[in-house]
Design brief:
The chain is of the alpha+beta class and 318 residues long. Helix content is 47%, strand content 19%. It folds into 2 domains: 105 residues, no CATH class; 180 residues, Glutaredoxin, CATH 3.40.30.10. The N terminus is likely disordered.
């Protein structure tokens, strides 16, 4: 656990929430010899921790170092802001509370790298089947779910019928009292999108939701859904008929899957019964494709193709 505490200290330091322990100092000496290689060693450690945390190491830029009352002050620009980091004169300790030995930070960094590698290995280990079952749990107007839909589009287009892909809408309740997180307009659109998947399949579904995400809003969705469907040549009358006849049945089916898999957040991707850990693997089209391809007993030729690595920095869920 200690390594994660140190990692948190670096993050707080660089984003300005705390400062390291600063000794009471008055006299600044400009005529001193500071071991620049040791200073850069500390700066490089900071950059490595930031990178492992998912940050941009290039946002940390060394500025200068000087001696002050027997301590060394290392000044860096972090995300455009100047930050001071105090160290002992021999540059063996960084003055966190309590002080941390630089050699210990190096050991923790290596241990953290190994931990992350192990987590990534475990996260990529999906059960294997001839035709992987891929379920994307979403809400029609969750922005994070919409991001996942956009990322999944080229994956579904590439892998096509080699996978069993299904969107599942996160709803709760019972007939006469159904709920979707963002309200009734979202609930109605959840049902329409599931009907389009049921009638036309996954490839049409990804094309449809891609356009909905980019052309419609909750304020106009009750009209806009139809405009998009008609423009795509979908049978609006058939969709409306299914909506009227199967509203409760569709919601009951998806609610049952949500409950059975204890899904609470949009997006949630489940591959052959195992959750895709986006906090470890990130969210990208290539990442989704690689995870799904790892779940084949025998990978199809499509798995050898690369997808332009669209990536979303946000890791949030609705």
């Amino acid at each position: 656990m200690k390594k994660f505490i140190i990692l948190g200290l670096f993050a707080l330091l660089l984003f300005g929430c705390i400062n390291p322990q600063q000794p009471q100092t008055q006299n600044v000496s400009e005529n001193t010899t500071i071991d620049k290689s040791k200073v850069m060693d500390i700066v490089d450690l900071i950059k490595s921790f930031v990178e492992l945390q998912g940050g941009n190491p290039n946002s940390i830029v060394f500025n200068r170092a000087y001696e002050k009352d027997g301590f060394v002050v290392i000044v860096v620009n972090a995300n455009g802001r100047e930050q001071e980091l105090y160290a002992t004169k021999d540059l063996e300790y960084v003055l966190f509370q309590p002080p941390v030995k630089v050699s210990e930070l190096k050991a923790q960094l290596e241990q953290l790298k190994q931990t992350i590698q192990q987590q990534e290995s475990e996260a990529k280990n999906f059960p294997k089947t001839e035709k992987p079952k891929v379920e994307l749990y979403i809400m029609s107007f969750c922005p994070f779910g919409n991001q996942a839909e956009q990322l999944m589009k080229p994956v579904v287009e590439l892998l096509g019928n080699t996978i069993d892909f299904e969107p599942v809408y996160i709803v709760s309740g019972s007939p006469g009292s159904w709920h979707s997180l963002h309200g009734d307009a979202e609930l109605r659109q959840d049902v329409r999108e599931k009907i389009i998947y049921n009638l036309y399949g996954a490839r049409t579904w990804v094309d449809y939701v891609y356009r909905i995400d980019n052309e419609c809003s909750m304020d106009n969705i009750d009209d806009c859904w139809k405009t998009v469907a008609e423009d795509m040549g979908l049978n609006v009358s058939a969709i409306e008929e299914q909506y009227n006849q199967s509203f409760d049945e569709i919601l009951q089916g998806d609610a049952s899957k949500v409950n059975a898999n204890s899904v609470t957040g949009s997006p949630t991707l489940i591959i052959n019964g195992k959750r895709y850990n986006d906090s470890v693997l990130g969210r990208s089209s290539q990442g989704y494709k690689d995870a799904i391809c790892s779940a084949f007993t025998t990978q199809p030729a499509e798995c050898q193709e690369s997808i332009e690595n669209q990536e979303v920095n946000a890791q949030g869920h609705c």
